[in-house]
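G., before I forget:
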Amino acid sequence: MREPLPREFVEALAAASGRLGIFTREILWYPVVSSTNDVAGMLADREAPEGTVVVANAQSAGRGRHGRVWASPPGAGLYVSAIFRPKRDVPLLTIAAGVAIAEGIQSATGLAVDLKWPNDAFVHGRKVAGILAEANSSATGPYVILGCGINIMPAAYPPEVAVRATSLEGELSRAVDRGLLFVECLASVSKWYEDLQRGRLAQVVEAWRLRATATIGRRVRGDVGGTTVDGVVETLDDTGALVVRTRTGLARVTAGELTWV
Amino acid sequence: MDFDEITRILGMMKEHELSEFELERDNFKLRIRKQGGGHWVAASPQPQYAAPVPGPPPPAVAPSASPVLAAANEEMEFAIVKSPIVGTFYSAAEPGAKPYVSVGDTVQKGQILCIIEAMKLMNEIQAEISGEVVKTYVENGHAVQYSERLFAIKPA
């Protein structure tokens, strides 16, 4: 069930009120939900407006891409989803979302955050936040749900996750201000979304490249739309595709599964 | 005249409940007429440059020999779901899971048929009409192009 927004969130939102852009409408807080993306999707189907935000203290069925479980124990992370109804095609939305979350985490904590294509946030080589973007349409038109899970506390993650994941408090060895983290991420997403809507695509791509120390120059291998790709990441092209140098030439990756070798 | 143009014409005829449509262009003539039973029948294209010959009128309801019109005929019978974007086709929510739909399934308007992933954005593709899935065109995990056929649905 929905509950009033915790005080630390209310105070942080008030302090940042001029920077929240589209996120000034409705922020819905739940102690626990199945998945914030599912709740946001349900609201969007009922015509909830752009900028509606769902935030939860825990998810009973948090998920990542392809139905992978996103461990979401109570209080261990920030689980947020927002509804977007872009007026124009926004091909770089998932790229911009990665940049925005990395910037938001860095603003709130001071930690250096880098990106793995397209939008996983890493600190010291371990994943600290992930994004799940889902597009669908309701009677009033298409919408996109951007969901984000940020690990805040070291928690009892499943062993297969524990070796690849980290948390902000684990990295900082101190407590994180959740309200500040939430608000800095919202402000950053709002800013980059506005840039996208205004067609400032080059800035998005450039900002991503500057943060992609975890991606550029890395060897990757994987199945991409039925074809095998094996090579070294060269760059991100202007469309947001990953350019991989293989033995036979350059390959553009826009989807599929990549393994970091 | 390509397949998409014919599809658009058929859509327009349906929308405005036209019973007959005729189009003439250089070297090309298309006539589509709705028969009593509510089925759509496309006429063979008639080369317009042929001198008008007195005699019986061209068979307006002859079965089509052209592959383009044959495909259009298929489109008349079934609703073809096409990919709205370039991306990777996923038939199920996760690897190893039951596909969203299989041939023979009945689907409702708005039901999710598949996911097309582009730039890690999961685009859920919905059925625009209710009916029976009669054909799937793409294998799980394969790349799809813009407008590529995904499913054929026989309207309920």
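The two ends of chain A are 43 Å apart (CA to CA). Chain A touches chain B through 29 residues (CB under 8 Å).

More on Monday.
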